[in-house]
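Exercise 3.2. Students should predict the tertiary structure of the chain below and write it as structure tokens, then compare their answer with the key that follows.

Predict this chain's 3D structure.
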Amino acid sequence: MQYNICDFGAVADGKTDSTAAIQKAIDACAAQGGGTVTVPAGVFATDMISLRSFVELHFETGSRILSLLKPVPDPNAKCDEPSSNPKRYLIGGWKAENVAITGFGIIEGCPEEYFWNKNDGLEHPLYGQRFWPGLHRPKGMIHFRECRGVTIRDITLIDPPCYCLWMLGCDDCEVTGIRIKADLRGPNDDGIDIDCCSNVRVANCDVIDGDDGIALKSDTHELGYDKACENITITNCRLYTSSDGIRIGYEGDGAIRRVTVSNCVIHNTMIGISLMVAISPHDIRGTDIYNGPALTDILFENLVIDSFQTFNFQHVKSPEDCPEPIKGFMDRIFFRNITATATRGSFLGGAPESPIRHIEFSNLYLKLSGDMGTDFLEKVPDPYPTWSDLPFSGVPWPFYVRNAEDVVFRDSTVEWGNITGAWQPEIVRCENAVVTQENIRTKNAPGDKVLFPVGLYCGVPYFKPPVGFDEAAHLKSLGEANDRNTDDLGKLAGSFRTADRITASFVYAQPPDYHGFPMLNAPVSAWQEVFRRFRTMHIDTVIFQAALWKELGECFYRTKIFTGLTCYGVLERMFEAAAMENMHVYLGGYGSVAGWKEHFSQAELDAELKNHRVCFEELCKLGKFDGMYFPSETAFKDHREPEKERRMHTLYRNFAEIVKAENPDLRIIVSPATMHDPKDNGMFQDFWNSVLTDSHIDIVMPQDCIGNTCSRLTDMDSQWKAWKEITDSQKMTLWSHTEIFERRGYRPEHNLYPASPERVAAQLALTAPYVKCHCCWEAVYFTSDEAGMEGRRLRKYMTDGKL
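Answer key:
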């Protein structure tokens, strides 16, 4: 049987109180043994509505209900503020069977009328500045109590006065495909609260709210008898909250057990996953927690979490005046296949009399970033801050574990990225805890010697000087070196040939060492414009520096393998434009700075080669290109280094074999640096012959490094003569790497500038007798209007060859 609420007097004007009409329709349906009560398109205003057994309240598309609820005191309330009335709701039922709310309509709580104060200017009790809750709010906008067979499907719930959907003491419930849109500043506006319920399935829901996204609780005191919250599955949900994504525990003493949370995205939250056994029963909120719940047999798997803090387990010690210890505990909690980012370390804390037990993390990828203070370095507070402290203070270790037994971290990775402050490299700091670590990898751990740490400038990642870098001393040296090159330029005046041309250029999507030219999201047409400008400067070859840049954490094509990196579809667009403009293309593959390391283990070498291989195999599927650029830069430093020579020879040879096995016609370029004094030419040549012999490299393109103040103009002839002898003996082609920039500092806002045309001309003249081709670094930027007057002057020289 179907019943339309308008047939019972409901008025779709958004103002008329339709409570009695809707309730009559529901009661009539129930009296006939059940059926469907339809809410047609239109806006209906209503007060509290109760569903009956075997009744489905179905919302047609375009229908909306607006709340007319007003404050009604709960005579059993234990405190005045913030109080709520658990017996009041907008739509719900009590001890009903087989009830449902379905359809694509909207239910709106209208909390601003009576239940929120937006403009009181007070410091609110929860995270950040929030609206202050009014008195006597209905605790659940949609509320089912002690019901069996509850179905809630497809509905949209907006701005509840307190909890959005609260089920207490219910069995056999299904919540699927609902959308919750609550204000992120709303007080206690939880998304879905499952309280003392069993056999519940939550799937495909989208939740935005200002408190817990989905909460599992066991408030047996409110229910009036002991009942576990058990056999719960939560899957395929998206949770965006200003508090906790998933909260298990906190209110009540009943058990919570046999729970699975899977395939969910939790983002922009304060805490990703919160497990709470107890807080003091004397808490000002009047919460009834005396023994604490037993949280057992809970599995979280296949989650993506973005939060201030990924995990927070709270089991505070019993209050001193508590007649007996809190009895709740956490046991057998499992986390599998989780990718998380956070700005604070996680806290896992049991009580001294009841430690957390059997907690296991496997295949966790945790990336930490942001600034860390020193508040918790000396001692993590006990009890740990529960509510508002997280954004301001935090755990400086990835995990702090207190009062725990048998905690295991297995097959996981912890990465630190863009960190500042007091972060600590130790993965787990323990306090009265037993923790096992098996196959845990770290990346960029603080305190390690980081060769090129990554920072952000105007939202763009760039390489920062290493930790301990003496900027003042280096700036002094830099100025002296620039002065020497200016003097050398004067000595060479009049001897420049202007016939030599730069015909190749490196290009970047996101330069790592200066602000650069914005090509990261450039369309094909913008790449075409760049290449046409290159043609006017006689450049017909481009080398994309690194299709995947490990240190920047970015990949510039759509990878199926390096999924832990941020991916952009840059190469695809560049390829299309290059084909249109007949540009020759060389690709740099897996770009890393491993070649600069002082020591390089066999394991690191194997990992480098594996990543080069898989990256190259993906690049081959993108389109045709002329060759590969191998960016494993290594400099000679005044003496032979057998370990480095063997390592680089292995890298070069194996990389070449990978490329040639795929396509023997692809040419391979390597780009070492010339950092040596001409008096060391003998050792220099022995070093590079050792590296290059039988390496199958086709083109050697040394960096002359004038812009990096490593070589003087007056030394270049001798240096390049040595390179020519090396490449001739190895039957390789020699290209120059003509640097068209100057370094004037070590920060991105005043770092690299276009070189003078006179200095570029001198470099070309000095290298021309030895090389087949002149290549430069990033002509797209250093000859652009973005580089200022110097860039335009350099572009004019590269176009017409006149000084």
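Discussion points: The CA atoms of residues 79 and 284 lie 8 Å apart. DSSP finds twelve helices and 50 strands in the chain.
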